[in-house]
Amino acid sequence: MMDEAKRLRKRVDQFYGFVVHWLPELYSGISTPSSDGGNNDLDEGLNIVEDTFADSPATSFGWEKLNTEDAESMKKLRVDSIQSSSSKLSLRSLDDEPETSAESQLLTKDQLKYLVRSLPSITVGHMMELVYSTSVHGISLKTLYRNFEDFDTTALIVVRDENHRAFGAFLSHPPAISESFYGTGECLLFSFITEKKVKTYKWSGENSFFIKGSKTSLTVGGGLGVLGLWLDEDLYHGRTHACSTFNNELLSENEDFICTGLEAWAFV
After folding, report:
1. Is the confidence at residue 106, as pLDDT, over 70?
2. Pick from 11, 48, 77, 108: CA 20 to 30 A from residue 255's CA?
């Protein structure tokens, strides 16, 4: 019985390590993606989880076989996680007015407040610095990349289309030219359904097609030949699709849209 309990504890530790690495929004740290987008590591992590639940003693004998020490350890892990999440939520609710380096020309103060409240907890306590704006820097993806070169932070992309609808993406890493997709599960897409209602689409776990930058376009989310959010090199033409990365709906009213304004913020 003791050997079975030790075996289960080892597998729980493996699963816990996987969760900490691939769901960093539950904890205080940020995962650093590999140069190839992290797909290989993700596959290895999923294999660990599948193996864990395939032949776990808990599956064969029932959870009542856990000894007191194991049960208390798992209970403590659950309580610590809940307390940590509650603490972060409390900090978010107290931060009514996000601190920004400039006033947004695309979102009202209330919209910005609603949006920031729905972002991952790693943004709590950080000021929002306006790094790029089409109204200030012109329309150029190249300029957006260049302006982010000195930043190593999370980023927020806000787009406004020809129908005055606001939407965009939260990025775990700054937008940059890359050979493959990069980023972590903290990335998400969002769209304002009404003036005071924002809908966010978090990582589904189905793939890791988070961020992909090239000289001619910027992409967030993808799968099965479609892209969640796509912007061209002039930041003028854009496209949105329902994608498996975030299981999102169309961010704009139509798949193809005209970008009438774009802002990119860094959390510093």
Report:
1. yes
2. 108
